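# step 3/5: fold
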Amino acid sequence: VFPGSSLEVTGVDFLKSQNTRQHHTDGYNIQSLVVRRGQPFQVQVSLSRELRAADKLTLRFGIGENPMKNRGSLLSLKPEREDFNGWKVSMVERKGKECLLSVTSSPNAPVGKYNLHVKTDSNIYKPENGVIYLLFNPWCEDDVVYMANDAEKEEYVLNDTGTIYVGSAYSIYDRPWNFGQFEEFVLDACMYLLDKSKLSLAQRRDPAHVSRAMSALVNANDDSGVLLGNWSGNYVSGTSPMDWIGSVTILQNYYKTKKPVRYGQCWVFAGVLNTVMRCLGVPCRCVSTFDAAHDTEENLRVDVYLNDKGEKLNSLSFDSVWNFHVWNDAWMKRTDIPNGFSGWQAIDSTPQEQSQGRFQCGPCPVKAVREGDVYLPYDAKFVYAEVNADRVYWVVKKVNGKDKYFKVGTETQAIGKNISTKAVGQNRRVDITKEYKYPEGSKEERMSMQRAYSFLRPSGLVPRSGYASTMQRIGANTEPLVPKEPVTKTGLHLEITNTEPLHPGNPLEMAITVKISAPGNWTVDLIGSCQLQYYTGNVQANLGTIKEIITLEGPSEMQIPLKIAPDAYMKTLSSVEDEVLILVTAIAEVKETNDKLTKETSMRFQYPPITVQMPETASLYNDFNCALIFKNKLNVTLENCKLVVEGLGIFKMTTFELGDIMPGRIMKSEIVCTPTRLGEKKIVAKLISNQIKGISTEKGILITE
């Protein structure tokens, strides 16, 4: 053989723009090639001379620190040979010294970062930037994350903006959120989390393991993960959870410092987990449940304690009902459990309860929650209780110096309401409660409940506060298997509404309506209270109470006003760091029959809007102006206002300090945006002040060539 004829590689072209378009990965802001598993991509190899029959050409894909063949972390692929671990390489064409090769990875290959080396005879060529990111592939029928519907993939995998629903069941509102899974360093942050998770290669094949690990790593509780949770109301050493408008800054800061970012609450955890899952290629959505139970003992009951004025007491409860709680659903075929439980799986990164020794939750099949199959992995009992527990009300009274508990109501249909997510391809809320639960009172619901109850052991009716040990058991009767709404002899019914808009700085004008359907003359003792509470159910301030004795001639109803002066709440509103809700609790007792009923409703304050003025369309790299306008229509000065603005692909996140905005004043901030990406883009803005923790808005713009 004459010298110089040994075959060498002189270059490798990863054909990035063609490959990423076909793999729906052209959005990632990263130098390297990003492709999805189970789908062919092409590489062009340039050689020192033409390829001959006797030449050996091998593509070597290695994953991890020290790739080895026998561990499956080094794949050695020769063109036209039988596949290796489900991977194969074929020669597309040979032109002189150029070879065009097509590589198809296995549809259940481990996801992560692979290094490509090309071996020819005894030479090994290491291309610069030879890293290939391999993701899950919802477009591939053989991938367990396969999703058939294109519009759904567009929403749950590719949409980098969205909406998280918060507030209360009485007043649901939307909080725009930038997921930003394609932004710089976000994919690298996800890869760092995968490495940090210590998942084995085999576990990296399976989205169930990956999503469980990510639910643990998005909170910082036991593994210095992404976000530190804080519900204390004191956020001076970090960013208040209310101030975030997206996941990008959080993941970028985390990747830069490798230290937990301060601070998150549930919608922030869910927003970040949604980004991570979409970034890795697993279809994912944010799910908000209103009146979600946090049932620490899996007895399907949450006890609420009231004093004799009808005010909720914080100190006695271990359990709580959150006004809303946000988690995520990830889409996958479950191969580790019996058939029939594929599809959406609940995962939750908010650190609430430990599961197998770590703060992680899920994946729990949504169908298992609906069918009552709460024994299935993972954490189905906890998720089932979040949407199905009963709420039991107790009044605590002093009797001979000792606390006595009197049951004043059980609600069996109050927990897990209005389960919501953003609609596919549209900016509106869609109610998915029926995916989690059968209709209340249906035959299927009863059967599902009996199933669930056979795996959970609901306790008898004993209040279980810290004082429970000091009291006598209230009768030895345990709950009937399927509790019904309490049937009162008089058909007593309560409704709580606001009669005027709830603007900060105005009196809060609300009403409790007492209805009785049975004929006759009835005397009703009504007590009502108004408090400010955090969304976790924690009471922040008592604002006022009413006590009335009313007489009704049934069937009829009466509206009792409950009015709170601004002085009673404005100081609290300005001093807390979180958004608070107005909680109204009413207890009614019919004297003649001893019928008792308790009802609570949480309402949110109503705020004037921010309006965004900008063109409907703009062209790539051509600046356009955007104006954000806010008129303070309230009767109070908004102190220390700041405006946070971010537009993925058009405007980097910026905070503008605006000082105080007096009543009636108009604030206008103008920004110049430079679009760097094509397609539908969005500006998201949020105004934060001492008095108001979050007025958000969003507006879309189409960027064209």
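# step 4/5: annotate
The longest helix spans residues 266-280.
# step 5/5: archive (pending)
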